[in-house]
Amino acid sequence: MLNSHRLCRPFSSLIDQQKKDSNLVKFKIPGKLGGRNLNPIPLPHRTILDPRGQDLDYVNVAHSHLVHSDWAKLDKLAPNLTPFRVKHILLKIQKDYVLSLEFFNWVDTQNPNLYTLDTRSIILHILTKSSKFKSAESILKKILDSGSIHLPSKLFESILNSYRLCDSSPRVFDSLFKMYAHMRKLRNALDTFCQMKDYGFSRL
């Protein structure tokens, strides 16, 4: 059984000594936490319901307006936007990180209550997969600033569950870990590292 108090002190001191690059916070994990996991937990393969009927029509029309940069027509669709539709539009345009971020920001101007952890996780996958770490970390900071005590575990789970759906890369977890460290949320950073190791994402 690991002693969390014993681990936190060296973890904190090592954070201060770390060398940072633009993509990943690097440091040496003491004791049993170091080393690769040779038997990682299999990644979950979650699916979501396909849009049908009016939802499908909406997603297709909105997608057409987006690819043609017809924001005026898209504005007219805003009152009927739902989290389900936001999610599917993001998935439909995920190969274009610029358009994805523009749409994500547009949703914020229309109704930020449409954001869910799922939609935020999808945009994080899109941005980190394209190495747009500053944009991803800006979104992460807004999420984490909400201050919910249960948010860190729910956020990791949401990112994990949409990982395969977005054909993502481990860089999304690197960014999450780096943001916790930057915000001095050392317990969350350590928990994230342990979860990354459990699923085989740790590079240390």
Describe the structure.
- The protein has 204 residues and is mainly alpha-helical.
- Helix content is 59%, strand content 2%.
- The chain has helices at residues 4-17, 53-67, 71-77, 83-92, 97-110, 117-129, 133-144, 151-161, 171-182, 186-198; strands at 19-20, 25-26.
- Strands 1-2 form a two-stranded antiparallel sheet.
- The radius of gyration is 19 Å and the shape is globular.
- Mean pLDDT is 84; it is low at 1-28.
Q: Taking all residues together, what is the mean pLDDT?
A: 84
Helix content: 55-70%
Total number of β-strand segments? 2
What is the alpha-carbon Rg in Å?
19 Å
Largest sheet: 2 strands, antiparallel
Order of helices and strands: HEEHHHHHHHHH
Distinct helical segment count: 10
Structural class: mainly alpha
Residue fraction in strands: under 5%
Major sheet strand order: 1-2
How far is the first residue's CA from the last residue's CA? 21 Å
Contiguous low-pLDDT stretches (5 residues minimum) are 1-28
Q: What best-fitting shape do the alpha-carbon axes yield?
A: globular
